[in-house]
Predict the 3D structure of the following.
Amino acid sequence: MAIELAQVQETLGDDYTVEREIGRGGMAIVYLARDHRHNRNVAVKVLKEELLGSAHAERFLREIKLEGQLQHPHILPIFDSGSKDGVLFYIMPFVEGENLRARLDREGMLPLEDAVRIGRQIAEALAHAHQSGVVHRDVKPANILLRDGQAVVADFEVNFDGRSDIYALGCVLHEMLGGEPPFTGPTTQSVLAKHLNEPAPSLGVVRPDLPPGIVDLVRRALSKVPADRFRSAEEFSEGLETLG
């Protein structure tokens, strides 16, 4: 049985008014709520009921612990969390605006200045997380929220090589500048095979007006061999700063 909005409301109590569902993924449902104590809108992320007691629940709890320790202007913070009567949740800011996926779907290629600025903000967020032993593992436009023109990264994990985040950020930059991801295909398997076996197309061919510096930066981030990528997200951010 799915968790109903009324159950979430009962769990949170009178300090919040749960208004509606605003998102849904493989593990969790996200609701918009009003925090009356602080007079603000918040997002409430609730683990799906069928995943309680599973490895997914352990991952959800790790996510709460990890994101709770990350304090950075470009990382989505956690305000509160808890569990009651089969409802496992955490509360985070409700970001007014859209995510990067929506903007790319609407606009396609972004101006160079915007792409470099957003890319640098993401890199700074990843550098901060990596210094705390946390990586993201799923850097993609849908997980990058845009608030007043500023990027905010959501959903971190742990125990993975941070250079995978650098590759993923290279993919995001490629799409911001080139209008589509570096690899596309009819199935997830075919795209994964290209990621593993094919060199990424050069942005210099896709968009010849780009400065050579940004083309080389994205090419390096998308290197097949992790050792050939940037040594850290901080180094990646510094490379973007020279272009801004």
Summary: The mean pLDDT is 88. Residues 112-131 form the longest helix (20 residues). The longest strand covers residues 16-24. The radius of gyration is 19 Å.
